[in-house]
């Protein structure tokens, strides 16, 4: 490599999009493709059959030896090199084309609709076509619509299309479903969701708007994923107050089973309108595009020319693709509008999916040939050659390349750069004795990157350039001191190698570099040998180490290997064979688990370099470490530490364990805090990996190879952090001991009072027995105030009361070994805390509250108590008012405010006499009795309980007075009073009527009969009185 | 206040029952009414008599008699509380009234004796002087000897006593003779009184021819 030149050239050469590189660079980096397939009928992933070289295909088909109308589709997965191949065909054809042939090459670098039309109109051959002015005006008419407005236009145009769908499309929805879909799309939350950066509208917008950067293979269509409704999205939709129809659709789309099916149906339906919507929003009328092509063909026919069209990517025509295909497929043998069309030979690039889903069957039937580029188009040698050509090209001045191209680009003249860096590195032969150094790669590293860094489906030229060549070369030339700093996960890292490096190098950054270099560029073994006078470390020449200033390392001296590396087809080898040589692995541990551990190791190495780590994902390496930190280590520590012996209630330890606060967190961990923080150091990695092995290899046992060392590591580490961890668990905040049990007890005492389990008027008799005994109040109904019952409901929410009770009942348990059913309590501690809470009348001073405890389950005790405290005053007030109201009624009935058992008994007797007399007097009343009249003492107590607190101000005292629900007890009395009042009134009315019908003796009115006598008696008494006093 | 209402209504119903019952048996009620009125009249007379004796003759009835009388009046009052004389209560008053009258009859003779003894004694002594007039007086006084619950009886007695006083005064007896007569009435006259130094008493006896009307007895 020549780094000085490469620094300038890399940006031009290492371009994933072949079309953007210069002609010279394109040819200099071109690697002949040999595994192409030719098909007459479309197959998504053809296998088997004959393979052709690009040259064979050019000669047989592209050059069109028979001079016929043809339409050739070149397809393959994204990045397989379709564009590259089409460009090569175009370049190759340019050199050999007949004189009357016009070549149009439509790039996708300007891949908006208007950009594509502009490319067509810029061709010199079509300068005189009819309607050109119209087309140019169309293209130049800038879209002055703002981005957001344009996106909104796209969005709402779909709604308009659905609204006006008169069922003429192939795929139809029922009217009900259409209405639901419209309501769904009209929902604000859905609108925002579909308009998001990764949403479908953005994809379509990129096809319309100019000056946008877009993924080349983006297809401007809806995808099923766009319509899968997550629970969060559903909540947002419903919380925003969705139309019921929209909500219904959201619910359907959220279903695990039916959701994806329904989403696909909607997608298929909506995609029918994509063309119409895009055209309308782009300001192009349907038919415009087809007309342009027909006009071009007419013009060429007039000039006696023929057209060969290379379209790099037909997906860029989304929206007008149907019209374009119609125009291309139309043969010149027919006439159109009375004018002849020129012959057309089209070579069109497209992806598998686009060809499968967007080409209608009638188009597919009329495609002359399909050329398929497999994903694994390069073999192992091709892969090395590909990399070598890029390194060579970027190490050459542009003039050298131009000279070569101008001299017909003969392979024997292919220029090779003068090596500045990498003289002692591996070389690749490009033929004609052209040896090119592949510095800064080794063949092993190329294979490693290809197999492990590139994702499946991305093992194509585009990604080889983007994810391997460019980053590694840039790293080597711009960042040599840190090379290799690229982010690589080391697969199945050799632990011995790691320990050997750690024992010789102290700087973590350097350790990481060396480890990565030896594992990815080399064979990953802690070996060193001499061969032909050169020293090799981990299979890499020592010079290579020196080139990057790696420290001198001493590894195990071994014999030099004798075998020569066989050439392998990197893509056809079984997966196991693709892995570069690694140290022997104990066969008792499945390979998949070893890989899992390696991935975790790599992640952790990054962690010690960056001092930051995100293990929030539960998948992949993050998931493995996540599991260790969130599950394995907490489980282990919880069971390994004897919490009680350390003075921590098991209840507390358990609450901390299940909380979001981790026992142990990693330094720089993005989410969740830990009570103990593992520093980003090598020792920490060893501990974490030991835990992962304990779980993964031994299934939480020590039954796996070398487990004894892990057991030693883990147990000694546990002992070393135990003191600090225990101290943290005990604490609410640094230096402040957790006291949630006080809140829990206060809450529980409130609960027993409010539920009527404790009915005394004073806390004096509230003992530990009352606290721990479970005497649930079985009454399903009560006569408490609305506020009282609301509080009870609040306490029951999310099982809060039950959980709090559980806390109180288990906090002081002293665990008994052997699963004993006997519960032993720490009576001393319990008494101490309980007495304090009782003495303070269930009040915990504000400054003592730990309501912001990060351990949720501990905080819950305060939340529970707080929920009660916030309400007790209003509950007491309401209850008291209710009691007062009832009591006043009773007092009014008795004409007294001191009503005891005696008064009640008299009342009952009077009522009895009343009914007896009514019976005798034949007064028609309904006899009623006091329910529970034999329990007058209870009734009297209830009245007394209420009376006793009528002037009380302390809410707790009031609550206790009402705990036994005295209002329910007096309720029958109140009903009895009401009934009696009613019956007495009835009796009075009847008495009056009956009396009025009575006539006195001798016809004298009753009240006039003894007037004189009464007067006399009074007079006589007076006389006597005088005599007595005389 | 239902607590009181219950009692009141219960009582109203009892009253109503009674009234209904009364209406069913008017004769019985009439008899009760009559009895009530009769008792009231008797009590009226008794009170008049007692009051007359108290006011005009300075005779005080004992407290028990007065209390009994008040009690009877109260019972009578209660018996008509509901505007219909209650038989039970009227009967009770009747019984009490009878007891009262019996008691009056029992206690009255003593009071009569005290009231009339001197007068009657003197009249008996002087009967020979004006036998016709004195006898008439004695008879009228004696007519009140038995309690008859009749004011006239006592008024007549009072008049007779008054007349007797006048009659005695009209005899012009000197004080020594009046003193002797008084001693006779009190059972304290002795022969010593008769055989005084001037024989004034003896002479008066002979003059008025009263020898046979006096007798001697031993202490």
Summarize this, please?
The complex is a heterodimer of chains A (1030) and B (219). Helix content of chain A is 53%, strand content 7%.
List keywords for this structure.
A: 1030 residues, alpha/beta, Rossmann fold, 5 domains, 42 helices, elongated, B: 219 residues, mainly alpha, 9 helices
Number of strands of chain B: 0
Order of helices and strands of chain B: HHHHHHHHH
Low-confidence spans of chain B: none
Structural class of chain B: mainly alpha
Low-confidence regions of chain A: 564-587
Which structural class matches the secondary elements of chain A? Answer: alpha/beta
**Beta strands of chain A, count:** 20
Mean pLDDT across all amino acids of chain A: 84
Number of domains of chain A: 5
- Name the chain pair with the biggest interface and residue counts per chain: A-B, 46 and 45 residues
Span between N and C termini of chain B? 80 Å
The residue fraction in helices of chain B comes out at: over 70%
CA-based gyration radius of chain A: 46 Å
Instruction: Indicate the proportion of strand residues of chain A.
Output: 5-15%
Span between termini of chain A: 153 Å
**Mean of all residue-level pLDDT scores of chain B:** 86
Strand order of the largest sheet of chain A: 1-8-2-7-4-3
Helix content of chain A: 40-55%
Beta fraction of chain B: under 5%
Shape of chain B: rod-shaped
User: For this entry, what is the oligomeric state of its chains?
Assistant: heterodimer
What do these coordinates show?
The complex is a heterodimer of chains A (1030) and B (219). Chain A has 1030 residues and is α/β, with parallel strands linked by helices. Chain A contains 42 helices and 20 strands. Chain B has 219 residues and is mostly helical. Chain B is rod-shaped and about 95 Å long. Chain B starts with a helix and ends in an 11-residue tail after the last helix. Chain B has nine helices and no strands. Chain B has helices at 2-24, 26-57, 63-79, 87-126, 131-142, 151-170, 175-185, 191-194, 200-208. In chain B, helix 2 (26-57) packs antiparallel against helix 3, helix 2 runs parallel beside helix 6 (151-170) and helix 3 packs antiparallel against helix 4. Among the domains of chain B are: 23-107; 174-219, no CATH class. Chains A and B meet through helix 37, helix 38, helix 41 and helix 42 of A and helix 1, helix 2 and helix 3 of B.
